[in-house]
Amino acid sequence: MSDQTTQKGTVLKGRNTLQAHKKKEAVAAWLFSAPALTLLLVFLIVPFILAFYFSLTNQRLIPNPNLPTRIIGLTNYIRLLSDSTFHRAILNNFYFAGVVVPVQTSFALGLAMLVNKKLKFKNLFRTIYFSPVVTAMVVVAIVWGFLFNPTDRGFINRLLQSITFGNVQPLEWLHDPKLALPAIMILSIWQGVGFQMIIYLAGLQDIPNELYESARVDGANSWQQFFNVTIPQLRNTTIFVAISTTILAFKLFTQVWVLTQGGPMESTMTTMVLLYRQGFRQLRVGYASAIAVIFFLIVLAVSLIQKLIMKEERAVS
């Protein structure tokens, strides 16, 4: 009996020690997570709750004694659903994301594979490709505004004339409704491709060389190695790149505001530009908050669908 009692006491003591250790780990985990959780609460959760509340009111940016703030329910959302400018802004966002995300991702993978090879001055090339990312978007937009100069003094128009031997007349890049958004797409792809390149470069360097050696032993050529080794090994990286690029594409604002402010004829109007106009130009905070809530839900849904599709493709393959 004494041996059994001793064993039970030892087991209980061990359990108590394990529980105490788990509690300490839990406390330490919460303490380490506290700064990040605080920032998440202050800069994401609380603002979203306030935006949802204001979207149910007629809140103005500058208080008006003759128009007191009051709850108006879903009036802002009903107006928003019938707002043709909002419809155009959403379509432009999807059009922009649908072009920029695959093109920029493909270029980023190609550049990453290029700078990952054993080439001379590869560090210089990495710096050159990444330098637009760390340049302020306002500066980038102003520079590209000069490049898109509609006269023959603009670099891009002059380049086109040189290539086509003068057969192409100067294009109104930022004043033509058909060319304005594609021009901003070109700018955005050039500016952001370096960020995705760095992410892909890190993914490429994590692929074991043994996989490529085995593929070469099996007689696989470069293209077969790319499709059967590189692409499958970069699935998680591609998911991250695609989702992050999609979110950035939907947040399109700075380059549009600097170059066109949503024109001409709303051809470059985006949701963020419309939100800024309503909230800070027309002082309609309630209506702008409704735009923000709807926009947040759309981006969240697109990101989740994108993630699910890529996970299903990975499971099938």
Topology:
Blueprint: H1 2-55, H2 75-81, H3 84-115, H4 122-134, H5 137-147, H6 155-163, H7 180-205, H8 209-217, H9 222-233, H10 235-250, H11 254-259, H12 271-281, H13 285-316
In short:
The chain is an all-alpha fold and 317 residues long. The protein is 75% helix and 0% strand.
Structure description:
The chain is mostly helical and 317 residues long. It has one domain (84-316): MetI-like (MetI-like fold, Orthogonal Bundle), CATH 1.10.3720. The protein has 13 helices and no strands. The chain has helices spanning 2-55, 75-81, 84-115, 122-134, 137-147, 155-163, 180-205, 209-217, 222-233, 235-250, 254-259, 271-281, 285-316. Helix 3 (84-115) crosses helix 12. It is flat. The protein starts with a helix and ends with a helix.
Please name the defining characteristics of this protein.
13 helices, 317 residues, flat, MetI-like fold
Q: Total number of β-strand segments?
A: 0
Write the element-wise H/E pattern from the N-terminal end onward.
HHHHHHHHHHHHH
Work out the count of structural domains.
1
Structural class: mainly alpha
CATH architecture assignment name = Orthogonal Bundle
CA-based shape:
flat
Task: Report helical residue fraction.
Answer: over 70%
Q: Which ranges are low-confidence, i.e. pLDDT below 50, for 5 or more consecutive residues?
A: none
- Rg calculated over all Cα atoms: 27 Å
